[in-house]
# Entry
Amino acid sequence: MKRRRKPSSPIHLSAPPLTVRPPLYFPVAGAMDIDDILADIAVETIPQETRDLQELTRCWVAERVAPEILAWPVELMERVLDRVRRQIELVEDQTGNMDPKTNFKLIVIQTELERFKFLVRSFLRARIAKIDKHPLHILAQHNASLTDPDARNPLLSPSEHQYLTSHQSLLSTHYSSSFLGQFPAALQRLDDTAGGISMVDKPDEDCAVFVRCLRDVGEVAVEGTEKVIRIKRGDVWVVRWCAVRRWVLAGDVELV
# Structure
């Protein structure tokens, strides 16, 4: 498999790429920009279920694109999982009383339920894949997020943390019985940092990502280069993850 080449410098795209989330940007003829129209729409007028679906889709896209695991959206997932449970109960109750093939309302509910379930499952698969790939690094980051006063949400959910610790315990036991037990005690640690070299595998922070700017960020310096880019609202860039990570976590920039 050929490795993707990292861009030597950020690339500015003149048009947004196609994304899987519900499109909110359409070409409109006339002087008024579509962003101006959307800005006039009050968030309160959008149903909570629609907002949750849009936010879940954004989290799903971001988690699949970002090289590192992102913070667990506590409040969003509580609402989504509670809604999924209630819809499952409703479907089971109505299925027992009437023919699901002739009940159009039930078909709509089942379709909406499957959409939520697909997003949740794919979102969790992406996170579990990262946990399996970088367990020690993610565990250290999660522990740091619990004591960080600026962290709005923990890095992992309780279930993910339990999975990580159990998975890592099984791996450590397997490695010790297979070959680590034959090494000197000083060489048996999986998180050894002796000699200034860490054995903990980390995500590639220099990989390229597509981002869309939601608010004016200003000038951004790309580490390792003399390139300085100015990111404005509505811009779409191909840039290194390390250059825009802080703005993605702050919500000023979104991954696409």
Observations:
- Residues 46-179 form a domain with the Methane Monooxygenase Hydroxylase; Chain G, domain 1 fold (CATH 1.20.58.1030).
- Residues 114 and 182 are 50 Å apart (CA to CA).
- The longest strand covers residues 208-213.
- Helices lie at 34-39, 48-65, 74-95, 104-133, 135-147, 158-178, 241-250.
